[in-house]
Amino acid sequence: MNKLFNYKDEANIMPVTYLELENFKSYAGTQRIGPFFNFTCVIGPNGSGKSNLMDAISFVLGVQSRDLRSSQMKDLIFRPPGTSAEKNENLRAKASLVYVESTKKGGEEGKEEEVEEEEGMNEGISIETGPKTIRALPTGKTTIFSRVITSKGTGEYQINNKSVSFKTYEQKLASFGVLLKARNFLVFQGDVESLARKNPKQLVEMFENLSGSAELKDEYEKAFKAKEEAEQKTIFAFNKTKEHKSERRLLKEQKDEAERFHKLLEEKNTLKQDYFLWQLFHIHANIQEREEVVAGLQESLDEHQAVVTEKENLLKDAKKAASTARGESTKKDRERMKLEAEVGKLEPSVIESSEAIQALKKRLAADEKQIAKIERENLNHAEKLAQLQEQIDEHEQKENQLQKEYDELKQSESEVGTMTEEQEVKYERIRDAAAVASAKPRQLLQTAVRALESARAKAAKVEDEKNELNGRKNDAERAMQELSTRKETLERSLEKTRNELAASESELKALLESTAEYQQKREKIERQLDQVNNSLRQAKDDRRKDKEEERILSAIGALKRHFPGVKSRLVDLCRPSQQRYNLAVTVAAGKDMDAIVVDTKKTAFDCIKYLREQRIGTATFLPLDSLQVPSPESIERIRGMGEADGRFRLAADVIRVDDEYRRAVNYAVGATIIADTLDDAREVCFSRQGGGGDDRLKAVTLGGAVISKAGTMTGGVTRDDTNRAGRWSEQKLEELRAKKESLETELEELDSQLGRGSNSTTAKSEDLRTAIGNLRNKESYSKSDLEYTKKKLKEQLSLLKSSKKKFSALEDEQAAAENGVAEASARVEKRRQEVRDIEEKHFAPFREETGISDLRAYDEAVGKAREDFAKKRTEIREHLAKLTARKKFENEKDFDVKLVKANAKKADHESMLEEAEASQEKLLAEVAEIKAKLADAESSLNQAQSREQECEDAVREAQKALKEAEREFSKITKRMNEEESDLMVLRQKLHETLQKARVDEVELPIIEGGAAPKEDGGGEPEGSELSESTRARRSSHLSQHATQESTVSSHFSQREDTRVAKDRRDAGKVDFSTMDEELKMRRSSSEEDKLRKKFESKISKLSAEIEGIAPNMKAAEAFDSMTERVKETMTDFNTAKEDGRKANEAFNRIKKTRAHRFKKAFDHIDEALKVIYKDMTRSSKHPLGGSAFLSLDDVEEPYRGGMKFNAMPPMKRFRDMEQLSGGEKTVAALSLLFAIHSFRPAPFFIMDEVDAALDNVNVLKVCNYIRQRSGDFQCIVISLKDMFYERSEALVGICRDVSSNSSRTLTLDLTKFDKDNKGSSKQDESRRDKHTIESGDDNTYESRKRRRIEVGAKQ
């Protein structure tokens, strides 16, 4: 364990023996507190001064006063109450720690020895006289560490009462293992909770201080910075070398390009001359041909106008006749529709009458069938009676035959006994008598049997009815359940439909509102767009920027895309506050107004490099981070002068610009002033010349005149200055253009929101309307279905109620029927017994007489035959009775009455049929009459429609003829317009070609002394007058064509226009004799286009090639110079690369050392933490204890990342430290503190109320651990938990002295009390400890405390 925790032998440990205080905080005078044992507890009530004792020890060990609840060091001095201010000023304070080095050997560590205590040996110790076994105090070399607070409030460090520097003081303490920076010996109140709450970065910072890696932090940062700088220098040298090589390669290319430049210029000029000659030659010839064609077309146009007028008159007459025929046809159609309506009204009555007749006919047929049936039955009646009589006779014969067979059978049976005939007769008589005597009982029996059968039948019937009713009731219940389910489904569906309907209606409403809103926005945007377009037209927005401006803007755009630090041109970032300052600001800023503003100098270098590599051109850059601007004092001085004078103002003050770019404006205009007139500027500048050079001002007037600081005057304005001053007006136009683009974009976005096609709002609204219609239909159907379902549900409910009511009655009826069956069964049995008694009374004498004891056996032998005989005879007689009854019933039938009734019913139906047929004939006649009128109306309508169709055909023919005439007229007009348009285009083309030749400075060959060709006649002949319609049609076609050729100016349409005449004369002076004959040949349009494209392609290629060449005549000289510079930069690069390698090696060495120190501390503390936490959480219930560990985010360089501290108490899952309880956090934090202490062990460990958040169980665990380690280091604990300090070796009691309002101390050695109880069993003590841990019972402590108090009282 000692090896793991790195503890030293006791001989090398210097524990704290005493603490001496002088007027420190609440401790008045000089007090010596101690001695302190290996495990000492400081106790006392709140406010007694326990924490001040902790502050005193911390103060001696170098803790600052601000960390000791004091703002300044003077506040730590005790000031007795009632003393004067002067005495308080002279007070001083001192705190000393007395270390006594132990002289015992390492092998004697932990042993106890018998010492003879002397009374009063140590001040403040209460002990008994006489020999006692106590722990011996160190008696070796004494070292006193002191810290003094003078009366002036200054601090002083002392070792053995000699003043030393803090460094020496710190080194001396460090030799004992006390590290002031790491504070590996102090645990203040709240430090445990603070340690548990530390974030990963704070844990890493703490470990850096513990491991000593923090000492290398500055050296690490310095080495890292040196490595970065060396790498930057290497990269800079490499880029510089690369740049010089690139420039050398560029210079070589420029040298080659300069030679090609002049050759390409000559080739381009020759090609452009041939191109313009070819265009002028063919344009001039085409103009002459077109003018001749236009004159011929005008004559043909007048002839076709007369034909068109004639066709128009014919069309008018045809349309008038067609209108009359259309009116007549409409009138006939109304009459037809009226008659069709009357027919439609009568047809339902006819159909109803036909259906009634068919029904009556069916009834008559049924009546006839009934009469025929009655007649057939009447005819068969006599035959049926004869058949019945035959059957009666036949059954009588059967009865006689049966009697004969029985007599024969009776003679053959004599085994069971014999009866004489007289006895047989007598037996028969007796049996008959018995039958007669039992006739009434038999009748009663039969009646009872029938009643029983009837009761059973009734019960069965009731049972069947009950089952049937129960089935109906179940069916009704199922139907009700299905209907209820259907009702709920329909209600939900209806509710859903209504919700969807409401949502769709709401959506439609919102869509319509949004559409209206979009439409309003669109109209508003269109109005704004019209205003912007009008403003642009008024400002002649059709002007084009020159190529140079476009090139500059394109270059700036490219720079902005590649370099975020590029802002824009200064002229684009600022503007004068008033328009009258435009020229003055332009002159004051000069060329800097076109400079490009960038954020840093590096960005400017990158931009210049980019421009050079891309060959875009040159530009001036203003880096905001390195511009030199006038001092604020001089600017304020000039501004104050201007405010006092009133005739001038600073140029920077009349320029509006964002604060971000104000520095660039101040650089461009400097301290320049703007005066209204030249006289004011002259007076302001020259009246101050005597003040010295520094007071001279540069002035600019509103007219553009300049007076420099040197006194020179410059006047007049160039065209470039005027154009540059007008660029802010251009900015307004740019704003208008930007606003126009913004409005157009907004309009497009609005249109995209409205959608197109299926996604448009119109389509969506139509879809919503369709959906709403469908939902309303669905709602209507659902309503009807729901009402029907509710009706059926009501019917089923009524049926169910009646079924239940009837079922209850049937149950009562069934019970009654069952009772009736039981009663009937009892009556049947009673009647049977009565019959048997009567028969026995008659048969008993006869048995005695005949000696036949068993008449039943006789009856089985003979009686069976007799019974069969009797049974068959009974069946025959019963059947005879039925036949007789049936014959009687047939005799009573009356067929005549039935026949009369059937004939009467038939007569009634025939009468009703006649009436229905008469009514039908009347309706049919009426319908036929109306249909006849309808046929006449349709015939008249057909005739009117035929007439109308003939008139329409005539109109169409007239329209066709008119269209044909107009088509011919239009063709001629269109051709004439095309020719005139082509002529205008050719004239304009001639003008543009001549103008372009002048602009491009192309020298065309001119005829020496030649006159212009004579102008020939053309155009419209004089005196020709066109009709109004002809002019209207021509103007219509001209206007349509003009919209297509809107770019052609109107003056090119007149032959006599001065510009046209001048162009014709200029074209006539051109000498085409030098022109190649092949170019004079006529070609088709496609061939001309190909030739034109060929010319333009060649010229464009040559122009592009020329523009891409920037000839540098000094390229050869510059190339040689650049070669030498490349050699120099290569040498610099190699040197920088070697320096970078050395810096990287130095950095890696420091990084390795720092990481090793940190990792060493981390590994040790992590291992110690696991053991300590397991020991502190181990108990009888949890013998394995818990687990705790540390983890790093960055293993390679741990000080750059974070550290996580996790603890898992016994029988608990892994969780974050924040989720542990307060006690669990405290135990975990204490384990970490002990582990940290084991890495850099101090000779002592002082803790302030670390057990505040612990329960009894955890307090005992911590206490036991401290006692276990008390032999390794000294532990002084301030505690309020009796369970804690009850197990310490000594107590330092602190109390309040009320008289002096100060703190007093009392030291008590507890080891001798433990020795007094040495005879007590260790097992009892362990049981008490176990009981205390498990139940929290402190009776053991109470008894021990009482014993200690008693002993202390005796002492």
Structural notes for this entry:
The protein is an alpha+beta fold and 1355 residues long. Helix 10 (439-538) packs antiparallel against helix 19.
Report helical residue fraction: 55-70%
User: Roughly what is the average pLDDT, rounded to an integer?
Assistant: 76
Q: Structural class of the helix and strand makeup?
A: alpha+beta
State Rg. 67 Å
Strand order of the largest sheet: 2-1-4-7-8-9
Distance between the termini: 40 Å
- Per DSSP, what share of the residues sits in E-state strands of 2 or more residues? 5-15%
Main sheet, how many strands, which sense, barrel?
6 strands, antiparallel
Ranges with pLDDT <50 over ≥5 residues?
A: 1-12, 104-135, 540-545, 689-693, 1010-1051, 1318-1355
Number of strands: 26
Output the number of helix runs.
Answer: 33
The best one-word shape is flat
Highlighted features:
33 helices, 9% strand, alpha+beta, disordered C terminus, 1355 residues, 26 strands, six-stranded mixed β-sheet, disordered N terminus, six-stranded antiparallel β-sheet
What does this entry show, briefly?
The protein is α+β, with helices and mostly antiparallel strands and 1355 residues long.
What layout of secondary structure does this protein have?
Layout: H1 2-5, E1 16-24, E2 27-33, E3 39-43, H2 50-60, H3 85-90, E4 93-100, E5 113-115, E6 132-134, E7 142-149, E8 155-159, E9 162-164, H4 166-175, E10 186-187, H5 191-197, H6 200-211, H7 217-379, H8 381-412, H9 421-437, H10 439-538, H11 547-562, E11 566-569, H12 570-573, E12 575-576, H13 582-589, E13 596-598, H14 601-614, E14 621-623, H15 632-645, E15 648-650, E16 655-656, H16 662-669, E17 673-675, H17 678-686, E18 699-701, E19 706-707, E20 713-714, H18 719-725, H19 727-754, H20 761-850, H21 855-892, H22 895-999, H23 1028-1044, H24 1058-1069, H25 1077-1080, H26 1085-1107, H27 1115-1177, E21 1187-1192, E22 1203-1208, H28 1222-1239, E23 1244-1248, H29 1256-1269, E24 1274-1278, H30 1282-1285, E25 1290-1297, E26 1302-1309, H31 1311-1316, H32 1322-1335, H33 1339-1354
Parallel strand pairs: 3-24, 3-25, 10-23, 13-14, 17-18, 23-24
Antiparallel strand pairs: 1-2, 1-4, 4-7, 5-6, 7-8, 8-9, 11-13, 12-16, 15-17, 18-19, 19-20, 21-22, 25-26
